[in-house]
Design goal:
Radius of gyration: 17 Å
Distance between the termini: 29 Å
Strand order of the largest sheet: 3-2-1-4-5-11-10
Structural class: alpha/beta
Oligomer: single chain
Largest sheet: 7 strands, mixed
Strand content: 25-35%
Helix content: 25-40%
Amino acid sequence: MSQFYNCIAEKYDYIFPLSPAHQTFFADELQGHTILDVGAATGNLTAYLSSQGYEVTAIDLSERLIAKAAEKGITVQQRDMLTIDELSTFDNIVCIGNTLPHLDSKASVQLFLQKAYGQLTQGGKLVLQLVNFEKYFAQQQDDYLGNLPLIVNDKVKFERFYYLNEEGKIRFKTILDDTIENEELLQPIFADELTQWLTQIGFQAINLYGNFKKDPFDKEKSMALIIIAEK
């Protein structure tokens, strides 16, 4: 995962800016005082949440993303997301940006969810955001699952494609500015199984949305899957 993000670190903020919808969503949903930002990247969400008075701990694996955050005066710790049980407890744990599917198996995803439950204070919230993979599996042609929307502006062009390999993992191919090609394996995760795992672990009040504007989640149409679950 870190190699992939190291390659796009210089253009990351142009590819994935923090939108007003993000800000409104988190202003409405988070509670308490402390937040763990998992997969914090260049720290844009961390900086926003800090400006709103939260005490934020940010972690990521990519050295270059962490360095870009440091250039902006934002501290992001280099830490594997499966070691969050070594940290203190938090009122909120946030894991957005399709970070969760970068884990290497469904067992690892479930392990992270269990550790997140353990690190939340009672009544604390877990916020997850990932791609709605069911939409892409429904349109599969041979090994091709489709492309994500093109990201293009005066600073960057970022193309993204999904292919299914023989082991059931997604080959995530990207092309940055028509020159830098990269490929990463993703673990597909579906809404129903994710909801089931969260319920089995003990999470309650589980809500699903199709975007940060809180439109209802539709497995056939939604581009994203956003889940809020409470301990």
